[in-house]
Design a protein that fits this description.
single chain; 818 residues; alpha+beta; Isoleucyl-tRNA Synthetase, domain 2; Ubiquitin-like (UB roll); 4-stranded parallel sheet; 4-stranded antiparallel sheet; 27 helices; 34 strands; flat; RNA-binding
Length: 818
RNA sequence: GCCGAGGUGGCGGAAUAGGUAGACGCGACGGACUUAAAAUCCGUUGAACCUCAAGUUCAUGCGGGUUCGAGCCCCGCCCUCGGCACCA
């Protein structure tokens, strides 16, 4: 009898040993090629759940695989430690956010260590520590210097519950706060923005990154590029200085169908253009529009609303007078905040015109149009009509012709509009990196000098139940002196969006202890960009877009010399419980700890990889984990029983002696290619099949000792990334030198994987009727002859005539009859 | 509404230059071991017909099509998940 597999005993033992020997400490003076593989760092919520492990364990396996393949691998871990939950804990439980966060980190670090990962803890990064946020602030100053950070007043998304503004990206499902689900309202506030829109065009260029199509598409949609033209409509009122209103459109070919013009209610020209008899109605409408929540305003089900303001503008192409309306379906923040209403060829304008009885004039004829009135807007291309000299042109030709004409006449100019808005980074909260700016009555807005960084968070701030920003009411923080004139001045009390912290953490991992800058330039040069990034797709338009912007901005400032932060990206799917995402607030959190205590970390790691394709995620169901545990037990018993078994020096069974190396090399090949493609589930099936086969070999004892050793060693090496503890223990017990994790990934010999015999399938009229084992090299003629001589085949061909024979080499013969 | 991904046994899922559908695992059933149970090991397991065997037929969301041959390709639907959603 062999000793029992006992993960509870061997796992902590090896974890200690590896930590003590620092075998996962990463150095830059390693001659191997570098490989920087990261997974998104976790928010410090307190406990890692099975969803976190689903993200982290397979990425650790992949990093280990690259390591065994001969790369110098950096696979670091850190903590995204600023954010609202810490502050909410302070308000409701009276515990300081710093204490709350650091306690959580301690627990999470313990959990991460129990997973058996190769994280180099010397490189841990925690965003809420002054040594980190000092540099977050430094980057803010750099962006400010470069003109990419600015302060502006605008209508922003405000969450009344969180008492803070939100970025557009943080408003979900038609107007709710991403974090707490409260309906978001509009508020006019002075806020700090980053000019991400300056990079809109370059962010659309994804030629240098190897990312999932899905994420690239989400980013493209979010940036929302559209090419069109800004068209000037004339204003002729003596008491108004403005002489034009510009609208943005992608359909200049429809301009002859413009029967009205609509401004956003907040458009700056609205009040001056409103005639006295419409003033009251217009002012009321504007007020109502402003009071609406985002949900109401964004609802597409709602009937169109709007009011006529009494003024007219002139369509310069046909000289027509066009009435001017305001309506909340026009957004101030997109294009010019004004649109021409072409009801015949735009669904929204059609609804609007129907509602208010405005004329609908067809200018693009649908194919086969009989002259009937339209029952809905016709938005497809067609032949132009009612369009003066452009009549008869196909609309896509007319589009360019009209645009050219307008540019020549000075009526318009081609432009590009983006849906993307600048990134709002101010948060009216305590637990974030303070924005390093000072307000001086004499000098205006003054940046904190670099030498005064960091601007520390005051430990004595008071957390009010109302949820208002504690910094605002903390005199020791607010009151300061102007760095320029030394007069009394006030600090900015807003802190930065935590996405700012995560936009550069992958730079800090290279040199977390560095004091002269955010990173050691030499080390950065060695490691960056990140070769492989893994994480959830929920960050597609937030973290992943912000980080790309950040790196491009730093590149233009000369701080880094590459264009993209993450060369390859892989999105794992989401683990759900009763079809819902796992989260503390939903109370459906499954922790890995009990499973680890019960079956071992190796079993949990492997099970998460086995449940399905990694990018698919799925419902959490632990009923299959026992299968993984049994398999690891079988591996254990197999290897140790092999130690007690005497194999012949020269086996008498040539079949088995051939088959074992073939099976071994086929398994290496399959496992390697699956690893490369993150196909962990099929990789494990292959290892299980290999185990099952080796069990039979062991029972028969029909192979040479040396063949057995080679096969067994391969199994352990292939298993090492997935089940690092078990593999190490068995590696040592089979007499190998420590450590398996410093051994090389096995390579296969293509020659050895080739089958000598195959099963030839015999089909008659496409149906499988017979199977015959033949040499793999069989020719068509040989196969045909062999097949026709089979009794089974003969009986099926009775009374039939073969008209055609299909031969697929190494696969099948299909006899087609009349 | 638009864009993307996906619908395969009781369950998770395999299988794509179109070539044996259901690998691997769970569960279930039967057996061995055990005083018994657990654990472990061995066998069976898509459905229907057939007394057994041999065998036949049907089966990859639905309906058509292409092909010697379709889970895979084409056309038209249905459903699930993810994203966007008055962006002019």
């Amino acid at each position: 009898m062999v000793v029992k597999y006992n993960p509870q005993q061997i796992e902590p033992k090896w974890q200690q040993r590896w930590a003590q020997d620092q075998i996962y400490a990463t150095r830059e003076d390693n001659p191997r090629p570098k490989w920087y593989e990261m997974t998104m760092f976790p928010y410090t919520s307190g406990n890692l759940h099975i969803g976190h492990w689903y993200a982290m364990a397979p990425s650790d396996v992949h990093a280990r695989f690259k390591r065994m393949q001969g790369y110098n691998v950096l696979h670091p871990m850190g903590f995204d430690a600023f954010g609202l939950p810490a502050e909410n804990a302070a308000i409701s439980h009276g515990i300081h956010p710093f204490i709350w966060t650091m306690q959580n980190i301690e627990n999470m670090r313990r959990q991460l260590k129990s997973m058996g990962t190769i994280y180099d803890w010397n490189r841990e990064v925690t965003t809420c520590l002054p040594e980190y946020y000092k540099w977050t602030q430094w980057f803010f100053l750099k962006l400010h210097e470069a003109g990419l950070a600015y302060r502006a007043k605008s209508a922003v998304n405000w969450c009344p519950r969180c008492q803070t503004v939100l970025a557009n990206e943080q408003v979900v499902e038609g107007g709710f706060c991403e974090r707490c689900g409260t309906p978001v309202i509009r508020k006019d506030l002075e806020q700090w923005f980053f000019r991400i829109t300056s990079y809109a065009e370059e962010l659309l260029d994804m030629s240098k990154i190897d990312w999932p199509e899905r994420v690239k598409m989400m980013q493209r949609n979010w940036i929302g590029k559209s090419e069109g033209i800004e068209i000037s409509f004339g204003i002729d009122y003596q008491n108004i200085a403005e002489k034009e209103i510009r609208v943005f459109t992608t359909r200049p070919d429809t301009i002859f169908g413009a029967t009205f013009l609509v401004l956003a209610p907040e458009h700056p020209l609205v009040l001056s253009l409103t005639t006295p008899e419409h003033r009251e109605e217009v002012e009321e409408y504007i007020l109502r529009a402003r009071r609406q929540t985002e949900i109401e305003r964004l609802s597409t089900e709602r009937e169109k609303s709007g009011v006529f303001i009494g003024a007219y503008v002139q369509n310069k192409l046909n000289g027509e007078r066009v009435p001017l309306w305001i309506a909340d379906y026009v957004l101030l923040t997109y294009g010019t905040g004004a649109v021409m209403g072409v009801p015949a060829h735009d669904e929204r304008d059609f609804d609007f015109a129907k509602r208010f009885g405005l004329p609908i004039r067809l200018v693009i004829a649908p194919p086969g149009w009989s002259g009937d009135e339209l029952s809905q807007a016709y938005v497809e291309p067609g032949i132009m009509a009612n369009s003066g000299q452009f009549d008869g042109l196909p609309s896509n030709v007319g589009k360019e012709a009209i645009a050219d004409f307008m540019e020549n006449q000075g009526y318009g100019k081609r432009t590009t509009s983006y849906r993307l808005r600048d990134w709002l980074i101010s948060r009216q909260r305590y637990w974030g990196a303070p924005i390093p700016m000072i307000y001086c009555d004499h000098c205006g807005i003054v940046p904190v000098p670099e030498c005064d960084l960091p601007v520390f968070l005051p430990p004595d701030a008071e957390f009010k139940p109302s949820g208002e920003s504690p910094l605002k009411y903390c005199p020791s923080f607010v009151n300061t002196t102007c760095p320029r004139c030394e007069a009394k001045a006030q600090r900015e009390t807003d802190t930065m969006d935590t996405f700012m912290c995560s936009s550069w953490y992958f730079l800090r991992y290279t040199s977390p202890g560095y004091h002269q800058g955010p990173f050691d330039p030499e080390k950065l040069k060695y490691w960056l960009p990140v070769d492989q990034y893994t994480g959830g797709a929920e960050h597609a338009v937030m973290h992943l877009l912000y980080s790309r912007f950040f790196i491009k901005a730093l590149r233009d400032m000369g701080i880094v010399d590459f264009d993209e932060p993450f060369i390859r990206l892989f999105n794992q799917g989401t683990i759900v419980v009763q079809r819902q995402k796992m989260s503390k607030s939903r109370g459906n959190v499954i922790t890995p700890d009990e499973y680890v205590a019960d079956l071992g970390a190796d079993a949990v790691r492997a099970y998460l990889m086995f449940i399905g394709p990694w990018d698919q995620g799925g419902e959490w169901d632990d009923s299959g984990i026992i299968g993984i545990s049994r398999w690891l037990n079988r591996v254990w018993n197999l290897v140790l029983r092999g130690q007690e078994t005497t194999f012949p020096e020269h086996s008498a069974d040539p079949g088995a002696t051939k088959e074992l190396p073939r099976f071994t090399h086929k398994t290496i090949k399959k496992t390697t290619s699956d690893m490369e493609r993150f196909r962990f589930n099929t990789q494990l099936s292959a290892l299980m099949e290999f185990t099952n086969y080796l069990t039979k070999v062991l029972e028969a004892r029909a192979v040479d000792q040396s063949y057995w050793h080679e096969a067994r060693d391969c199994l352990l090496l292939l298993l090492a990334p997935t089940a690092p503890h078990l593999a190490e223990e068995l590696w040592i017990r089979t007499g190998h030198p420590y450590s398996i994790h410093q051994s090389s990934w096995p390579e296969w010999d293509e020659e050895l994987t080739l089958e000598e015999q195959i099963t030839l399938v015999v089909q008659i009229d496409g149906k499988v009727r017979d199977k015959v084992v033949v040499p793999a090299s069989i020719t068509e003629a040989e196969a045909q002859q062999l097949v026709l001589s089979r009794d089974r085949v003969k009986s099926f061909l009775k009374d039939k005539e073969v008209t055609k024979t299909i031969f697929a080499p190494k696969k099948l013969v299909n006899l087609v009859t009349k």
